[in-house]
Design a protein that fits this description.
Elements (H helix, E strand, L loop, with lengths): L9 E2 L9 H5 L10 H17 L6 E7 L2 H12 L5 E6 L2 H12 L3 E6 L8 H10 L5 E5 L1 E2 L4 E2 L2 H10 L3 E5 L18 E5 L10 E7 H5 L13 H11 L8 H17 L1 H22 L15 E4 L9 H10 L2 E2 L1 E2 L8 E4 L6 H19 L5
Parallel strand pairs: 1-12, 3-4, 3-5, 5-8, 8-9
Antiparallel strand pairs: 2-10, 6-7, 9-10, 11-14, 13-14
The chain binds pyridoxal-5'-phosphate.
């Protein structure tokens, strides 16, 4: 992978994150939104998004201007009708955000919660669905970026589909790296964005919707104009253009980053690189005395949550500044139960970046402990 290492600041965050030079260079042009060249970029983008999850025959890709949350909200607004009811499985902040979205849309929902360190329990899900016939959809987060938890996508989706319910997945921090095969699993909607495992710049989210779900949309009941994915899809299908002003440079960058994903060998190879990043990080941090919040068995190699050191009082804000001066941006914790901080393993980064990061941490922690540790 050709990472450009010249004078860059390394973002160890879940996004915006460190991007490749080619992705940023793809933005150095002024396209008109109706130019043929731009229309064909949009077409390529939509096709490439489908191939990432093996969905070309079964689904449609609908990109939307905005951050990831916009398109999560748009997906619920478009698919959930006034008579529907969503079972929302939550074990972190992004599950809670789905609950808040559906509540604000005024649609019926039931939350089913687990603690932040526990994955979704499929048996419990099965019992809950079996007991409530009014549940029309099940919604959950694939990789809970709050902690780095990997929820069992295939099992959860299979149970819901087995009961004939729709499935909406927030795959924001897994799409492009963790295996998702929609040809084997007829999920209703998979939602993600440009600036996580696709390693592009922020500004676009997208929903991959099953063709049956598109056919079943009741447009009159969609309570929003700008978040109406059905209308957005019709725009693309009629003339290849975006309904409202597209972020043209961001569209070009995301398309380039999808070409780069292909060149790397697709999600399988990207996943392996993230695993190597994560292992380098975990080993190094554990040698410095840091402990991880999650059990290894449920940890995705996407973002790692670390607990504070026990022997010294490392204040996050100071740690952040010390590491920032050394060229690295880390991320605050998001757990509700305890202090923590997070390190992203995704982006245009390789294990040697994490070796360098560990060296920076060793310096900072060593100073705090009174002597550099070796
Ligand atoms: C990043 C993320 C989102 C969307 O966040 P935005 O700030 O709106 O881009 C949603 N869900 C998960 C799991 C995420 O990691």
């Amino acid at each position: 992978m050709a990472a450009d290492l010249t004078g860059r600041h390394v973002l160890l965050t879940p996004g915006p994150l460190t991007t490749q030079l080619r992705t940023r260079q793809a933005m150095l042009k002024d396209w008109g939104s109706r130019d043929n060249a731009f229309v064909s970029i949009t077409t390529e983008l939509r096709q490439r998004l489908l191939s990432v999850v093996n969905a070309s025959a079964t689904h449609v890709a609908i990109p939307l201007q905005g951050s990831g949350t916009f398109v999560v909200e748009a997906t619920f607004a478009t698919l959930i009708k006034p008579d529907d009811k969503v079972l929302i499985l939550s074990n972190g902040a992004y599950g809670e955000r789905m609950i808040e979205i559906v509540r604000r849309l005024g649609r019926a929902f039931v939350p089913l919660r687990w603690p932040e360190h526990q994955p979704i329990d499929v048996m419990k899900l099965n019992r809950t669905i079996a007991q409530d016939r009014t549940i029309s959809h099940v919604a959950f987060v694939h990789c809970e970026t709050t902690s780095g938890m990997l929820n069992p996508l295939e099992q959860v989706a299979s149970v819901a589909i087995g009961h004939g319910r729709g499935v909406i997945v927030d795959a924001m921090s897994s799409f492009g790296a963790l295996p998702i095969d929609l040809s084997a699993l007829p999920i209703t909607a998979i939602v993600a964005s440009s600036n996580k495992c696709l390693e592009s710049v922020p500004g676009i989210g997208f929903s991959i919707l099953h063709k049956n779900a598109i056919a079943a949309v009741d447009q009159k009941s969609i309570p929003s104009l700008s978040l109406d994915l059905y209308d957005q899809w019709r725009g693309f299908e009629s003339n290849g253009q975006w309904r409202f002003t597209p972020p043209v440079q961001v569209v070009a960058a995301l398309t380039e980053s999808l070409r780069l994903l292909d060149e790397e060998g697709g999600p399988t190879e990207r996943f392996k690189r993230y695993q190597r990043n994560f292992l380098t990080l975990r080993t190094g941090m554990e040698q410095l005395g840091f402990r991880m919040f999650l059990d290894a068995a449920v940890q995705a190699p996407i973002i790692a949550t670390f607990l504070p050191l026990e022997d010294i009082n490392l204040i996050f804000e100071e740690f952040w500044i010390d590491l920032h001066e050394r060229g690295f941006s880390i991320y605050p914790g998001k757990l509700t139960t305890r202090d923590s901080f997070r390190i992203g393993c995704i982006g245009a980064l390789v294990p040697s970046d994490f070796d360098a990061f560990i060296e920076a941490c060793r310096e900072v922690v060593g100073v705090k402990r009174g002597a550099p540790i070796r």
